[in-house]
Amino acid sequence: EGAGLLPLRRFGRADVRVTALCVGGGHVGSAMDDRGAAMFLERALEVGCRFFDTAESYSGGESERRFGRYLLGARREEIFLMTKTRAMDRGTAERHLAESLERMRTDYLDLWQMHDITSAGDVDRRIENGVLEVMLEAKRSGKVRYLGFTGHTRPSAHLHMLERLRGLGVELDATQMPVNIVDPHYESFVMGLMSPLVERGYAILAMKTLVYGQLVGQRTSWRRDRHAEDLGAVGTEVTLAEALGFVWSLPVCSLVSGMTNVRELEENAGLCREFPKLDEAARERIVARVGRYAGPQMEFYKAI
């Protein structure tokens, strides 16, 4: 308390800075009750977080409703607010935007993202069906400040999106993708995407930084048939500080963490202030140490 904001990083090419830790909103609607969500969000503000992530699909909109009820209010101007849409066509995208704004009781979003792109065909379909057009219109009208896209299935989908955007003469502002210590071994977002994104000035938002908890030994993912047998690389091969320090030592704008309780929040906030700054050689040593944990069972969300 009293330590002020968490460290700030520039949001890509934009003239704005955000906290290097972003509170993932998936669990705010599912892993805690109403009172617990209120206390968690208040504590997130107290420890210095000002970047908050959610999506219209999280718990049937309950995550967004709780953000509107307990997070924003008088603090709206201090907070960098992100939500996402899985819309596959123009009409759905328009409806999702209107409903997200209403649930969160705000008249604008700081970041609105095309959520969960899975393949080149998926990207093409959404663009052809008008989703990107709705997003660009929302930015022009002031309902949204910045735009981005997310995905955790395959890096080629992100690369195809970048190609399509270049062909359309459009640049978005951010992308969200898996960034973690086992990623370089399998369908790697870190190896395949970091350089082109940095060159184009994108804000890179890291997610799945503990592989949905599997790196710390949790079996809580949504695809239980794909679980790794070897869990818990964090605590045996590397420390939590090293695992998250690996991510913050890369050119990411913020680490989006799906924290489920106040203890995890406080631990991550502490590490955000004092993470080990790892050079390339140190990062490569960590990646080498965790090779046996890598692959499709560990990163079960990739290349489904």
What does this structure look like?
The structure is a single chain. By secondary structure, the protein is an alpha/beta fold. It is 38% helix and 15% strand. It has an 8-stranded parallel beta barrel, surrounded by 5 helices. Strands 1-2 form a two-stranded antiparallel ribbon. It starts with 7 loop residues before the first strand and ends in a 15-residue tail after the last helix. The model has no long low-confidence stretch (mean pLDDT 94).
| Structural class category | alpha/beta
User: H/E series, N to C?
Assistant: EEEHEHEHEHHEHEHEHEHH
| Weakly predicted, low-confidence segments | none
How would the global form be characterised? globular
Main sheet: which strands, in order across? 3-4-5-6-7-8-9-10
Largest sheet: 8 strands, parallel, barrel
Distance between the termini: 43 Å
Count of helices?
Answer: 10
Strands, total number: 10
